[in-house]
Design a protein that fits this description.
alpha+beta, Aminopeptidase, six-stranded mixed sheet, 8 helices, 8 strands
């Protein structure tokens, strides 16, 4: 990527993080995820664990910290190794999120967490429900941007991006499900929600 395009991307990324109030989920081994919190403005959603998300509910929005994820690849195109490292980092981040949802007022009232990703199939087994993006043209734009990020940060670059046509989806998981999967099994707060 040319220096000018790289500079523009970094400027956009910093502005996006500030606009959405994204904060790192620090795990002690770095942070691969960031979270923002906002009121939900969409249609009513029913998640598989019975949680219903309605307009006005407080929800978290997850974002990958692209450079941190790229660092896990360590410049090598070993997809299995990288996938395992990313999964472990994701699980550590979810444990931090459980703790924050117990202790921090900003996160305590969250009902669910969402993310928009081209890797939606990979997170279904992690408790996430998959939904199409509500506005199709926005889905195309988000998908194009995420394919750009994949080409930019994956060790195989554009070769990886062109292997398959990706289309973004929105993935949701309830805070209750995150507590069940990643919470301290001995903590009484797991059953609070």
């Amino acid at each position: 990527m040319g220096a000018m395009l790289d500079w523009l991307w970094r400027l956009y990324d910093a502005a996006y993080r500030r606009l959405h109030g994204l904060q790192d989920l620090p795990t002690g081994r770095g942070s691969v995820l960031q979270i923002g919190v906002a009121r939900y403005r969409g249609r009513r959603l029913s998640l598989r664990d019975g949680t219903v998300v309605r307009a006005g509910d407080l929800v978290g929005t997850l974002h990958f910290h692209n450079k941190a994820v790229a660092a896990l690849h360590d410049g090598k195109p070993d997809a299995v190794r990288s996938g395992i490292l990313i999964l472990r980092a994701f699980e550590r981040s979810m444990k931090v999120l459980v703790r924050l949802s117990d202790e921090h007022p900003r996160y305590r009232a969250m009902k669910a967490i969402r993310a928009t990703t081209i890797f939606y199939q990979a997170v279904e087994n992690l408790g996430f429900d998959i939904f199409p993006l509500p506005f199709r043209p926005a889905g195309w734009i988000v998908s194009a941007y995420q394919r750009f990020l994949l080409a930019r940060f994956h060790p195989l670059g554009r070769a990886r991006e062109n292997r398959k046509t990706f289309e973004s989806r929105t993935v949701w998981v309830s805070v209750r499900e995150i507590r069940r999967r990643y919470g301290d099994k001995s903590s009484p707060s797991r059953t609070r929600l």
